[in-house]
Amino acid sequence: xxxxxxxxxxxxxxxxxxxxxxxxxxxxxxxxxxxxxxxxxxxxxxxxxxxxxxxxxxxxxxxxxxxxxxxxxx
Length: 74
What we know:
alpha+beta; Alpha-Beta Plaits; four-stranded antiparallel beta sheet; 2 helices; 35% strand; globular; HMA_dom; HMA_dom_sf; metal ion binding; Heavy-metal-associated domain-containing protein
């Protein structure tokens, strides 16, 4: 299992959390998603490595700002 944490800006409520989760869940190989709104952290566990571009695309299609990997939250 591979786990990566990313920073996603603009999430403020459970609706935001659900919207981002739904978009990311569509990516092939995603096993679980955990979101911590106060720290803007989205942690994704997957069976194989997922290209950052795929995650960025899913987040931006959900109309949130993908801010890249979150080194301090890994």
